[in-house]
Design a protein that fits this description.
This protein is of the alpha/beta class. The protein contains eleven helices and 21 strands. The protein starts with 5 loop residues before the first helix and ends in a 7-residue tail after the last strand.
Length: 506
């Protein structure tokens, strides 16, 4: 291999160094001027990276901003925009519950910052390569000509240099300065100092600071209430999740598969860690979502879906939407997160069995029949039965929001198990005997969010919260059900394991 001459090696090293320095400078500039629009904490939000070592939550003109120091120099500024909260009390209660279960929202912001960093690095590397490539493409003789032209004050090289400077100045425009912003005149104050000695601040929140000037006593009361809700919520759900590791559940056989079923969460992200702890205790490898994850189906409730997905992202996941998940947002968002959307077609289910499901027609008016709107409940029920009975292989599971949608399929003997929620009260298993001697069962899970009404946000469930464990044999056929109920006093009730028997089985 021929040896590279020292001058050539030095020139190449210098070009590489110039490229690296330029790429770093350009990439950093692009990164610090980047932003991403997303939905966080129930708001439209803009995420912007900084180098001040803090995460800053800019809440708007009325509420105080909040910040927390980070262990790294890279920080982030989150500017909250519109929300559909109807009152300050509702907004603060929502903030408190999200803060107490913030892992999914933190992961979302982190992913956006990493995405901006990678995109800026790539663009910086590309832009920095332009002068280096131009230098190489010109060649030695042409570069000498340019140098001589500049020394001789020839017009063309000078004109090129002048145009380059003009382009930079036009993009930079340093003569336009920003006026002093109002929020920069306000001082940061530790949260504990702002609230005063009468309000205990949880240990993990002691690093929080707020930026205030003159804040009304009513705002302080709202913040104090949110801090109390945060502390109560975090402690209550953490204790419930820990206690789930000690409950006595039926242990599956080696050839069995367990799936956890949730329904009617209604934005109660606090129950997600509890449901996951129960799933781990039971050895579940999959999760069914029977809908009503939200209260309105609006994009501001993405925080609830992010939390659900963050808790179960490493499991097999199937989902339908409920009547409160109104419109296309919830189903589409879950699909983007990697959930298997059931839209009226037969799909592969747990343990290789067959599963069928569809969104509740009272929300979207759509099933798999995307070009037909306004289908009634009875029409969708009939369509599901037709699909199930028309399958070449028997349907093992029908997942719907309301188990009544699978009633006709059971009556016609075309499915083993129909599972749903909607009623907020547990029901079943109810046995159905088909006309040809086939047997199927219906099961209704209560509300996983402990919801008394359409929304379950609070420091703890407002009523008993429930999940169901469904056991499948090695053929994908459901063979057992077990209810797990978390009472409002934090104690568990575990139902007896309900075996599902079929003709010809022992």
């Amino acid at each position: 291999m021929p040896r590279i001459p020292t001058p050539v090696l030095l020139r190449r090293s210098l070009l590489l160094l110039v490229w690296l320095v330029a790429a770093l400078a350009i990439g950093t500039t692009l990164f610090l001027n980047s932003s991403r629009t997303t939905v966080l904490a129930g708001h439209d939000a803009v995420v912007q990276p900084t180098l001040d070592g803090h995460v800053v939550l800019a809440t708007g003109p009325v509420l105080p901003d909040v910040r927390l120091a980070l262990p790294s120099q890279v920080g982030v500024r989150v500017v909250l925009g519109k929300t559909d909260a109807t009152s300050s009390e509702e907004l603060f209660e929502r903030y408190a519950l999200i803060a107490a279960n913030s892992e999914a929202q933190i992961a979302k912001v982190r992913e956006l910052v990493v995405e901006m960093a990678l995109a800026s690095a790539l663009r910086g590397a590309a832009v920095a390569a332009i002068p280096v490539l131009g230098f190489l493409l010109l060649g030695a003789s042409r570069r000498r000509d340019l140098v001589e032209g500049i020394r001789g004050l020839h017009a063309r090289p000078l004109l090129g240099a002048g145009l380059a400077v003009a382009v930079v100045l036009a993009l930079w425009q340093p003569w336009f300065g920003d006026e002093s912003e109002v929020d920069r005149t306000r001082a940061w104050m530790p949260l504990a100092e702002f609230l005063g000695p009468g309000v205990p601040v949880p240990e993990e929140a002691r690093g929080l600071e707020v930026r205030v000037d003159i804040t009304s006593s009513s705002t302080k009361r709202l913040i104090a209430s949110a801090v109390d809700t945060y502390a109560t919520s975090r402690e209550w759900y953490a204790a419930a999740a820990e206690a789930a590791g000690e409950i006595e559940l039926r242990e599956p056989a080696e050839d069995e598969t367990v799936v956890l079923m949730v329904s009617d969460r209604h934005d109660n992200v606090g129950m997600d860690r509890v449901a996951r702890a129960i799933a781990d205790r039971a050895g579940a490898t999959g999760v069914f979502d029977a809908g009503d994850d939200t209260s309105t189906g609006k994009p501001w409730e993405a925080f609830s879906l992010d939390s659900l997905d963050d808790s179960f992202s490493d499991l097999d996941r199937w989902a339908v939407t409920g009547n409160h998940d109104n419109g296309p947002f919830v189903g589409d968002y879950l699909g983007e997160l990697g959930w298997t959307r059931l839209v009226g077609e037969v799909a592969e289910g747990p343990a290789g069995g067959l599963i069928l499901g569809v969104d509740d027609p009272r929300s979207s008016g759509l099933g798999n029949w995307r070009d037909e709107t306004g289908l009634s409940f009875a029409e969708v029920e009939s369509r599901i039965a037709d699909t199930a009975c028309g399958s070449e292989e028997r349907i093992d599971t029908i997942l719907v929001h309301d188990a009544k949608l699978g009633r006709e399929a059971l009556e016609r003997g075309c499915a083993d198990l129909v599972v749903g929620g909607h009623l907020h009260v547990q029901g079943g298993p109810t046995r159905y005997d088909g006309p040809e001697g086939d047997v199927g069962y219906s099961w209704t899970n209560g509300t996983t969010g402990g919801a008394a009404y359409a929304i379950a946000v609070g420091s703890k469930p407002r009523r008993d919260a429930e999940v169901t464990l469904i056991t499948y044999d090695d053929t994908g056929r459901p063979v057992g059900l077990q209810l797990v109920r978390l009472r409002t006093d934090g104690k568990y009730f575990v139902g007896d394991y309900q075996e599902l028997s079929y003709p010809g089985t022992v």
